[in-house]
Write a structure and sequence with these properties.
The chain has eight helices and two strands. It is an all-alpha fold. A two-stranded parallel sheet has the order 1-2. Helix 4 runs antiparallel to helix 5. The radius of gyration is 17 Å and the shape is globular.
Length: 171
């Protein structure tokens, strides 16, 4: 599994961006076709639980003890990226990591706009919890920017839910 993560991380950023954009479109279309069927909700529940497990594995479980420091200044990563451009890729990967949560959770929660809001709140709480655990157990840096980028990823993923509700108007 570790090799898969490295493979994804090393892909060109435009390719990853295109993939995420197409994934959001595809998910929205599939949701439009499937409606609110039990099969679709179950499939999304499996995807959601799988991505939560993957995120927990990558951000907490595989981390060894290290610095337990907190960076609580929003957008500090952008300052660091001016010196270390690889930080831009790291921030983008934080966005991409949470897109599947935004893709799947609103369809588990049901129809309407409330599932989108609840998905964003849940993603925010989940990522804040991860950052707290990283700080508390000295598993890495606790950064506000990670919370912002992860939540942004969930917001992008919820666009598929918006698309599915408005598919007929778009075409």
């Amino acid at each position: 599994m570790h090799k898969l993560f490295i493979y994804i991380y090393c892909q060109p950023i435009p390719r990853l961006t295109l993939f995420i954009f197409l994934l959001i479109l595809l998910w929205g279309y599939l949701a439009y076709r499937e409606g609110n069927s039990l099969r679709w909700r179950f499939a999304n529940a499996v995807v959601f639980l799988g991505i939560v497990a993957v995120v927990f594995y990558m951000t907490v479980y595989t981390r060894g003890e290290g610095a337990g420091e907190a960076v609580l200044v929003p957008f500090q990563s952008f300052q660091a990226a001016k010196i270390q451009p690889e930080m831009y890729r790291s921030m983008l990967m934080n966005v991409f990591l949470f897109v599947p949560i935004g893709l799947s959770l609103p369809f588990v929660l049901g129809k309407g706009k409330l599932p989108e809001f609840l998905t964003v709140v849940a993603a925010l709480a989940f990522t804040a919890g991860i950052e707290y655990m990283q700080y508390r157990y000295a598993l890495g840096w606790c950064e506000v920017d990670d919370v912002i980028m992860n939540t942004l990823g969930a917001v992008l993923g919820t666009l598929s839910h918006c698309l599915s509700r408005n598919w007929e108007r778009l075409i």
